[in-house]
Amino acid sequence: MSAKKKGMQSVVFLNPPCLASWASIVGPKEGEGPWGNSFDVKLSDYLLGENTWEKAESKLLQDTVTMAMSKQGLGVDEAEILLAGDLLNQIASANFAARSLNIPFLGLFGACSTMAESLILGAMLLDGGFYQRVIAATSSHHYSAERQFRFAIEQGVQRSPSAQWTATASGAVVLEAGGAGLKITAATVGKIIDMEQSDVNNMGAAMAPAAADTIKMHLADMELASDHYDLIVTGDLGSVGAALLRQLFVRDGLVPAPNYSDCGILLYDEKQDVHAGASGCGCSAAMLCGPLLAKMQRGELNKLLFVGTGALMSPTTSFQGESIPCIAHAVAIENI
Amino acid sequence: MNMPQNQQLKQAEAAEYKALVDQVNPKPTYIKNCVWAFVIGGLICMIGQIITNGLIKSGMELKAASSLTSVSLIFLAALFTGLGLYDELAKRAGAGTIVPITGFANAIVASAMEFKREGYIFGVGAKIFSVAGPTLVFGFVISVIIGLIKVITD
Asked: Tell me, what's the ipTM?
């Protein structure tokens, strides 16, 4: 087995890449949430001065990447490669953002697990010695996602209590080889887990088993106790998915229970009429690049397991009666 | 030999998980939803009745008054959809706003507004009936069946 592979599904980084800088931009509704002041920018307008939701999302991603680089006083062209993706068909937002950013680009699709996926791949490229500076980024936009996956905005519909609200948000992390500060020390690539859940209004229930499997595999592969991390945070399980995941922790015998939370629950206030919480690539990305990494930088958290969760649902296959395949990837970020 | 056993195990696991999901899943607030639907749906019908009565009083025949009532309700629903108010009402009233003719108008106008950015042919033209289409298709089918029944029984 290679020196960097550990256990069944995990990797450890021999030269852990550092998170050199990061940025987060959120929409108006997300800005009103409990962590509103922890993001770099709170938008006042969902269109960002553009004339379509797709252009707005693309600009959101582009601005976040530019801001993450500018925090180190660098231009985007000083990054060697961009790893990014989003929820739209053909990852349109990422493609168009990359067109403007004009740096080498690998497009990713992992639905809402994209932030974790891009961090893992970025860290591997750096530890592998291929690059010195990589950007990992993702975005989601409520209105571009809504029109693609669900209904027209003005359509009168009653949302299910288990439905989640796609966040208008974006996060970008600049990863560098070597350097000091927060580091990505290990990662676990998840398998697709499908528990035959097919309710597109209950993504949390579909994704929870994938999160449980990846967390269990990570702890087993890394030979860690379940309370090793100061916080295990999942991407966007929402209140239903998080409640299920807690039950699955018990089933899997994780004792003591991990210190656990979910970005989908954290992003909005309960009063914001979002039902089971937030979802979307930008949800976990902005929570990571906003409050979570800031807490790590201040030393309030030292060991974080960031678990991106993705419901790899296609409207076409859902109408054909297929269940929802789900995935989760775990990234260990430590203050060392 | 192993495959059926594995599949059985997977099915059992999925069934077990389904039971857990059913236990955790929040239940819709049925009674509250019914009351909202009854009140708002009832109000929409009442507005329709007021319009009909008014038109009859002003000397219009019942058949013409009914048609004009439908047209008026469709116009109002389209207007409120355009103003961004109909979906706010429907969020609470549910079936009360979807079942009356106003719901049909909302579905068409909302789709037209949403897909205007893809142009008039491939956007508005192609997508305008994306939600209302099934109502039209099955409405036509049922009307043909009822017509046939009438022809046969006459």
From this structure: 0.88
